[in-house]
Known about the structure:
Elements: H1 22-33, H2 38-42, H3 50-59, H4 61-88, H5 92-96
Amino acid sequence: MATKKKPPEELQKTGRKSTYTVAVADVICELLAKGHTITSICRADDMPGVDAIYGWLKTYPAFAEAYARAREAQQDTFAAQVIDIADTEPDPQRARN
């Protein structure tokens, strides 16, 4: 006699428990918007790793949306920094680097 398969909701979850919290997600998005890179954010002891964050993007739609908005703000931040450098650097060669 064959063993009856359990439905997916009765199967035991495997892997680590998610460390996701809205508070940590908000901090990540805030830092991204200010121009920090995802790798620099993840270097902090109180932050999750890059793989965890990319997993959260797939699992938590609200985080994925906030992350996308933070990346847009990050682009604005970088553009403003480029303009500031171009406008304030007296040496044109250094401004290009």
